[in-house]
Design goal:
mainly alpha, rod-shaped, about 90% helix, single chain, 3 helices, about 0% strand
Length: about 130
């Protein structure tokens, strides 16, 4: 797409009829619209991911408090060690699940950010093919 646009601009500059001002104007406005949509998608995704991570941190704090209470209420060192072990196993499982969920959210955010740019570039290529 970049090569097609650059070639078109070079051709317009040397054309006897002058540059295609309508097409040059579309190039700028369409890019701005696509980048604005992309930025909006990134902002929405970042907000959702941030909320999810914040909630996970709050939830983990609650797990820590319950584990600390269980350790403090233990009657023997073995019971205290068991409470610590239960918390550690639970944490590992939660952390792995959160990492997978975060990875999925980041992949979706990337796709959402690229989608308006791809849509615009595809439409541009189609329109330019018709003009040549």
């Amino acid at each position: 797409m970049i090569a097609a646009r650059t070639g078109r601009m070079a051709s317009d500059l040397t054309s006897a009829t002058g540059p295609d001002l309508k097409e040059l104007s579309l190039m700028s406005s369409e890019k701005a619209e696509a980048l604005t949509a992309s930025a909006g998608a990134v902002a929405a995704s970042a907000g959702a991911i941030g909320r999810r991570l914040g909630q996970a941190a709050m939830d983990e704090g609650a797990h820590v408090l319950r584990a600390a209470a269980a350790i403090g209420e233990a009657r023997t060192p073995a019971q205290a060690a068991e409470a610590q072990f239960r918390y550690a196993l639970g944490w590992w499982s939660r952390a792995a699940n959160q990492a997978l969920t975060l990875n999925d959210a980041l992949m979706k955010a990337q796709a959402d950010a690229v989608a308006p740019i791809h849509k615009t570039a595809t439409a541009n290529a189609k329109r330019l093919r018709k003009k040549t």
